[in-house]
Amino acid sequence: xxxxASKLCLLSLFISWTATGATPLxxxxxxxxxxxxxxxxxxxxxxxxxxxNAAVINHDKSALTVSTIELELLQSGQVLxxxxxxxxxxxxxxxxxxxxxxxxxxxxxxxxxCGTDLIGPSIKLAGPKLEKDQALMINSQIFAFRxxxxxxxxxxxxxxxxxTTEIMGTLPIxxxxxRNKYIFPVRxxxxxxxxxxxxxxxxxxxxxxFALDIAKLGENGLSHKGDGTRFEDYFAYGAxxxxxxxxxxxxxxxxxxxxxxxxxxxxxxxxxxxxxxxxEQAERLEKGSILGNYVVIDHGQSEFSLSxxxxxxxxRVKKGDQVKAGDVIGQLGSSGNSTEPHxxxxxxxxxxxxxxxxxxxxxxxxxxWADLPRPLQSGDIxxxx
Length: 385
Description:
Layout lengths: L1 H18 L5 E6 L4 E7 L4 E13 L5 E12 L2 E8 L1 H16 L2 H4 L15 E2 L3 E2 L3 E13 L4 E10 L2 E12 L13 E7 L17 E4 L24 E3 L4 E7 L16 H18 L5 E6 L5 E7 L11 E2 L4 E4 L11 E6 L16 E3 L13 E4 L1
Parallel strand pairs: 2-10, 6-8
Antiparallel strand pairs: 1-3, 2-3, 3-8, 4-5, 4-7, 4-9, 9-10, 11-12, 11-21, 12-19, 13-18, 14-15, 14-17, 15-16, 16-19, 20-21
């Protein structure tokens, strides 16, 4: 009878909310359309899933006090995994969210929080007690599993006016890769320094979750000769960048300079360099110059490629141009937020940094040391035919 009474109470709250056309309590996800999986080990059917952001928001004058949050993965309506966030973990996200909002992080890297779609301008991050127009945001929740999952569900447990309540939100899980057929954007043998693997930074950023950082290695096993203080020292510098598929150029830039100070100095330790890099990256974000020289191509089917960090003055296409797969669109450089000459390449569901990443395969590559064809991982050496 206790469970029945609780359900009836929740139903009465729901009826009163919908009768007025309001949604006092809601769960939002970012990205909002779906969460995508990527193989951890393709041939053993081991998958990874990363929920970037979710928020429970109170729009009502009655406060919601959050006690626990559960994240569930479902297949055909059956719960197969559950992750429970207790009060200590919830407090961790409360503290981190408040600090990030106060420091202006949500505005500085708005692409990581879906602009203002997740946390609107009038919403304050707080908790565990959420007053009117307050929200609790959680980030970077990882799952690993075998097989398939089709739905992520978030359950928020708490109290409103002393009465136990539960709020639920669901998000589709997508397992498919990009729909269009793509070729690798650099010819010959290349090194994928960062891919969709969890130990490199791309996976944790929404638009570049499945992006690639592409360089070339020399006989010395490094990406450069000499001490690496000049762009010309790098084996990839000046390499042709190719259109990965047919499409239309919708954005481009070719007027951004390269800055050698963005690279690690020979006498600079890794920790010191990382501290300096963080400061300089924040400055580039504020200036809106992180891409440097770049090209965005609309390939149809809501898929857009971004190739970034071109060598200044080498972009060969302009807005509105139609390109074919394999056309040379510029030369690899180190403009923008680039720690050394490389090509940043990604596919997203919206142009540039405004969308969410889409996993991709390439029709013309062999992965060195891979027994069978598989999706790319960070650290792979690929041979593009």
